[in-house]
From TrEMBL:
GO molecular function terms attached to this record: methyltransferase activity
SUPFAM superfamilies: S-adenosyl-L-methionine-dependent methyltransferases
Keywords of this entry: Methyltransferase, Transferase
Protein's UniProt keywords contain Lipid metabolism: no
A GO BP annotation: methylation
Pfam families from the UniProt entry: Methyltransf_19
Protein name, entry field: S-adenosyl methyltransferase
């Protein structure tokens, strides 16, 4: 199973990589034994981590399907990780064969790996950048040369904004992205919360030792201002894996999913 590029390494000195761990939890093959062992250890300490990964992807799939049905055929995903297991370009091209996708991730090894995975896919790019630096992301050729920002874009912030700890920075970054998008664009957020999940609170407050970053937990009251000027689609803030364009759907406090999700549209 460990048949990744030698640049990824597969010896005992290789640390777990969160994008590969995510891939493993989705049932993918772009991961190493160290990632699988780490995932088992995390699940023993925080049962449900693998379910969180699947719930993020369930939300992303539902959103992309909705946007494709609405005619959106270009997408910008922040904190994309590895584009595997029914990712955005695969999902969207079932409806729009020429859909264009720009992925953004901050980890250089993940970006290198992701670029190998999408090599040969015209109209798909992977940008190495901090999602919190919206100006740099939007100005990068990996975005500008792939996406036409004068037309509607689907902006996915799935499982990434909780790693922007500074609330003011997060708000500014979101505003910069949303201000840059054309009318008819979509914006989707899934975000960790400890509502109904005390284990996530414990996860957020422990020392992560450098292999990952503790998330900043937020709720709808804190994040709703990010959507100023946008129309919420469907049921509003709900448990992310339960979101559908036609409501209603239960909240995270009801399902205990640990994830808030919302989708909005720029009129």
């Amino acid at each position: 199973m460990d048949e990744l590029d030698p640049a990824d390494g597969d010896d005992e000195e290789t640390p777990p990589n969160m994008a590969r761990v995510f891939d493993y939890n989705l049932g993918g093959t772009e991961n190493l034994e160290v990632d699988r062992e780490f995932s088992v250890e995390v699940d023993a300490m925080m049962p449900g981590m693998s379910a969180l990964c699947r719930d993020h992807r369930s939300f992303s799939r539902a959103v992309v399907d909705h946007w494709c049905a609405e005619g959106i055929d270009q997408f910008l995903e922040l904190g994309s990780g590895l584009p595997t297991v029914d990712h955005v370009h695969t999902r969207s091209r079932r409806v729009h064969p020429d859909a264009r996708v720009a992925y953004v991730d901050w980890d250089p090894r993940t970006v290198e790996h992701a670029r190998r995975l999408v090599a040969g896919h015209e109209g798909v790019s992977v940008l190495h950048a901090d999602a919190g630096d919206a100006a740099a992301v939007l100005a990068a050729p990996e975005v500008r040369d792939v996406l036409d920002l004068s037309r509607p874009v689907g902006l996915l912030a799935v499982g990434v904004l909780h790693y922007l700890h500074d609330d003011a920075l997060a708000a500014r970054a979101v505003r910069a992205y949303t201000d840059a998008l054309a009318p008819g664009s979509g914006f989707a957020i899934s975000h960790l919360t400890s509502v109904g999940r005390p284990d996530i609170h414990a996860w957020a407050t422990m020392n992560h030792g450098g292999w990952s970053y503790a998330p900043r937990l937020r709720g709808p009251v804190e994040m709703t201002p990010w959507l100023d000027g946008w129309a919420v689609v469907g049921p509003g803030w709900v448990s992310a894996p339960d979101w559908r364009p036609q409501g209603p759907a239960p909240g995270a406090e009801v399902t205990g999913s640990g994830l808030w999700g919302v989708v909005a549209r720029r009129g």
